[in-house]
Amino acid sequence: MLHEISRFARPAADTSEREQSEGGTVLTTLVRGLEVLQEVAADRGNATARSIGDDLGLKPGTIYHILRTLRATGHVVRLKGGRYDVGPNSLSLGRSLQQSTAVPPELEMLLARLHNKTHATAYLSGWHHGKILLKQSIEMEGSVRIDRLAVGYTYNMHARASCRSVLAFLAEADIEKMFRGVALSKLTPHTVNDYDDLLVELANTRNRGYALEMGEFQEGVGCISAPYFDSPMSPQGSFTISIDLSRLRQDQMPLIHAVRETAIMATNYYAKQRGSMLR
Q1: Domain boundaries in the chain?
Q2: How confident is the model at residue 198 (pLDDT cuts 50, 70, 90)?
Q3: Do 188 and 215 touch, CB atoms closer than 8 A?
C-alpha cells in the first residue's frame, strides 16, 4: 500500500546523501528506506534481504541496516526463515491511503461483477495526486499472479494497460509533461520504453477504446483495460483484468466485451450522478 515514490526517480546506489531534485534536495537514505518498505509491502510476507537487494541493486549491509531501522519503528516485522512483512505502523499508513482513495459502493459492485463474469483477477484504478493508483483488486484463485502489484501501486504507468487506457484520453501536452525525457523502464522484452512508441500505443488504445497488455509488465501475463469517465472526455480511472496470455489470445473478444461493458456502466453511474444518463 506504500507506493508513492516513483521508480523513475530512483537514485543510483552510489549517489551522495542529498541529491538535487526539481523541488530541492532529496534525502537519499530516506528514499532507499521507503523503497525497501515498498518491496516488503509488495511481496506480501515473502520478501528477504537478498530478494530486496536484488530488486533494488543495493548491498546486503545497506539492506540489513534499513530493515533493522524499519523493525525498530514498527514498519516491518521479521518472520521465520528470514522473511519480512509490513508491521502495524505500515498498516496504519495503508488504512489512511484507503480512506483517502475510497471507491463508491457502486463501483465496488461493478468490480465484483467483472471478476465473476470473466473468472479473472480484476482491478479498479483511478487518479490520486497526479498518478494512476491501483485502488482495489479481486484475485482469482489459482490464476497467474502479477509480482509486486498491490493496492496503492503507481509505478510503470507506461507498461500497464490499466494506466494506458486512461492516459490515451489525455491531451498530448499532458502526456509530454509526464513522460518526455523520463527513463521508461524496460520490464520485459515486450515493454514499450521509447516516448514516440508510447504515443503510438496510446493512439491505438484511444482508437480501439481499450488497452491491451501482452507480457509488457510481466512475462506470460496479459491484461485488458477500459477507461471510465466522470465527464465527457475526462477519464476518471479504469477497469482491468489480468490473465494468462494463452487464455487472452483464446477468449479475447468476449473478455474485451466484458471489460468495456463494465467501464461503460461505471461511466453511466457518473453520468447519472450529473443527471444526464448516457444512452
Answers
A1: 7-95, 101-273
A2: very high
A3: yes
Of 1-15, 29-43, 98-112, 215-229, which gets the smallest average pLDDT?
1-15
pLDDT number for residue 276: 54
Does the pLDDT value for residue 82 go beyond 80? yes
- The rounded distance, in Å, linking the Cα atoms of 46 and 88 is 17
Cell numbers at residue 278, please?
448516457
How does DSSP assign 60-110, residue by residue? HHHHHHHHHHHHHTTSEEE-GGGEEEE-HHHHHHHHHHHHHT---HHHHHH
Specify whether the CB–CB gap between 230 and 213 falls below 8 A: no
* Record: fold of 7-95: Arc Repressor Mutant, subunit A (1.10.10)
Backbone angles phi, psi at 230, to 5 degrees: -95, -10
Q: Which of 116, 112, 3 is nearest to 124 (CA)?
A: 112
Question: What per-residue confidence (pLDDT) applies to 42?
Answer: 80
Average pLDDT over residues 259-274: 93
Q: What are phi and psi of 174, to 5 degrees?
A: -70, -40
CATH code reported for the domain at 101-273: 3.30.450.40
Q: How far apart are CA 113 and CA 120, in angstroms?
A: 11
N- to C-terminal Cα separation, the chain: 37
Residue 226's beta-bridge partner residues?
A: 239
